[in-house]
Design goal:
Blueprint lengths: L1 E5 L8 H16 L3 E4 L5 H12 L4 E6 H5 L9 E5 L2 H11 L2 E4 L4 H15 L7 E4 L8 H10 L5 H4 L2 E4 L2 H9 L6 H12 L1
Parallel strand pairs: 1-2, 1-5, 2-3, 3-4, 5-6, 6-7
Helix pairs in contact: 1-2
Length: 195
Amino acid sequence: MRIAIYCGANGGNDPLYKKAAAEMATYLAEQGICLVYGGGNVGLMGTIADAALAAGGEVIGVIPESLMAKELGHGGVTKLHVVSSMHERKQLMVDLSDGFIALPGGFGTLDELFETLTWLQLSFHSKPVGLLNVNGFFDKLLPFLDHMTEQGFLRVAHRQCVLVHETPDELLELMKAFQPPNLGKWIEKMVAEAR
């Protein structure tokens, strides 16, 4: 099994973020789950790669060549894929992974998270997507997702695809139990409503 982790190229202001990132990566390695990530050697990305490797885990990085040119690629991972663009990076990470976890991060983390959720919504994949809610990092995002649902821009079944927990073990249990919604009926209903 392989899990992609989306996380920041920065470490954040609170040491708790790095600690939680290392614990998540260590837990994956201990469970025999390969870590797929953005290939960087800085911030939380570097933390998760180093922690998984230290715990004997397999680590696959996927990094655009423009970032490799800036010497941001991790030289010690099990395998490092160097790709031509961010789009290719995201696609390969999805193709390589059986599930996805977002840790704290910035625009890039949210971009990866929401593109993966959009692809799930559109049945481009049926893999679980989770948030490790470290130190309440996502507490202000989750009510906005509820607001989107209440305002009719997000269906309840799709809102329920965002799996959230504060601990790695409980989040992985939620992901293992994940059953994607019947998106075929949703698409048929959208087509019917458009007519």
